[in-house]
Amino acid sequence: MFTAEQLKTFTQHIFQSIGFSEADAQLAAKTLISADLRGVDSHGIARLAGYVRLFDHGRLNPKPNIRIVHETPSTGVVDGDAGVGLVVGPKTMEIVIEKAKNVGSGWISVQNSNHFGIAGYHAMMALEHDMIGMAMTNAAPLVAPTFSLEKMLGTNPIAVAVPAHEEPAFVADFASTAAAYGKFEILQRKNLPAPLGWAQDANGEITTDANPIKNGGALLPLGSDREHGSHKGYGLGSIVDIFSGVLSGANYGPWVPPFATAGFMAAAEGVGRGTGHFFGAMRIDGFRPADEFKGHMDNWIRRFRSAQAVEGKQVLVPGDPEREIEAERLRDGLDLLDPVVQSLEELGKRFGITL
Amino acid sequence: MFTAEQLKTFTQHIFQSIGFSEADAQLAAKTLISADLRGVDSHGIARLAGYVRLFDHGRLNPKPNIRIVHETPSTGVVDGDAGVGLVVGPKTMEIVIEKAKNVGSGWISVQNSNHFGIAGYHAMMALEHDMIGMAMTNAAPLVAPTFSLEKMLGTNPIAVAVPAHEEPAFVADFASTAAAYGKFEILQRKNLPAPLGWAQDANGEITTDANPIKNGGALLPLGSDREHGSHKGYGLGSIVDIFSGVLSGANYGPWVPPFATAGFMAAAEGVGRGTGHFFGAMRIDGFRPADEFKGHMDNWIRRFRSAQAVEGKQVLVPGDPEREIEAERLRDGLDLLDPVVQSLEELGKRFGITL
Would the pTM count as exceeding 0.95? Predict the structure, then answer.
């Protein structure tokens, strides 16, 4: 068991070792470990070695000049300067929050970035300002659109965070696929098959293969197949891709570069710069008084949470499961898988840092 | 067979007969018939009698004072004054387009409206201004969240329209459910079962009942069940509900009033005013030069459309099917079902208008 603080400090020191400023390393560590805290283990410290590998391959700039390259009062494009998405994201959220303070809302599309951790972390930055926050990102192609044999989209997640008054915030944060990639990784480790509807094989047939990418297959969009609305999941993933990639001047669709994970390291011929993100913030009182709105959000949340449920189940409000895991892990600590601990020990050894 | 012009003229005259101004009646007719043209027959002229019934029940104001009740440079709330959504929608889109011209983007949440036809029509209004358009709406509860026995959300559609240069625009327009309600209506008429994954029965079990609402069941969110991501479809429908209803001061969740369709006429105890919508527009050149962007959209669209497909299929770009139907129906005319023709003849008889 590790404490969150322990993991944050270790992560910060690793990032400082590859040239990050102390402030950036601290911010990157906070963003990264928020994934572990919220139960999205696949996007947390398990990826630290991947970020270092990105640096080793010259694809991560430890001292980026993150800046606005074009803007209007409510919109703009940020150049991440090949900095880590874990830092580019929060810095861009600060800009959209500032724009929202000035003119009601802010919307920034980001080019030249890379993996930003969990989308929910960024969206939630808006909450303390009585704003709705939004974050999305494109990613390397793993997903086949409806009827496609080719992988054309990433798992392209969307997060929307909405403040309430007495109730905890509404935080939806989900991949636009039937199942997030982390779900496949869990099955791979346990040597279990995937449910039908999560993936297709190299011939476009549905499969229970829990490692479909390795075998020439692809993940399926939310909806799984045409009859169950996969064209909607594909549409949603496309919107994320266009907002994040085409609007910013980053790569998009099949051209999005891979994260530095084993097996995904091949170079991609680009149509833009790096990975793209899209962030937004809307001031609640740009619509109606914040107190009034938050009172109604309490009502919304309570009504949904108390909806009559099927036997033995409860209707959850988006954000409930992650918040419960976070409370538990802050109290009891975080358990890491052996291969993750091993990868951290290797990093520690390389940079002379103990976990 | 009818021509679109014929249906528009008839619709316009019906709306004028219940007190609409000529301009509003024309606009409402254009909006309504766009659904028939794009193949969304359930949202087109088949609903005309329903709008008249809304008027008969005192829930539709033929001479609304549609106005902004609160705003910032990029956001605001519009009061639809119980006007028809078919008119409230386009008038609000004009406001968000104007805001986008001024500060880069515009976002309006609408209260006190009702059914607005197809979301795609509104979103597409932004295209000629080199803007991305967005439209969504909440609706009367037909959908059970994951694990819920109760119907808590409408089919809550989202539309996003993105301009391209030589290629036709990208237009995603979809309900946040496994299947739109119109799909059930088609099956009901043909007396066919629904595919598993579209609906649940009164006990929360999946069912092939094509009329699940009538029998105490519910439609399922996109994703169908927990294992296939129904919590994501539920999250998406919730976001639409919050943006449309809670942000505007309209009704939300289970309180959204029913459209004037047989069987859905019961009064709802409200938490706000009428039905809610949410509209947005973002100026492309608020991010990067419009020509550059549209060139990349052409590239995006061509790459996706030419993706290697499963035998006998083609990868479609969102908006392709609707555009093809529209071209066909503009050329060959529109066929209406007998019950629809009958309902129009009854309306015509009542108001002395011939189809």
Answer: yes
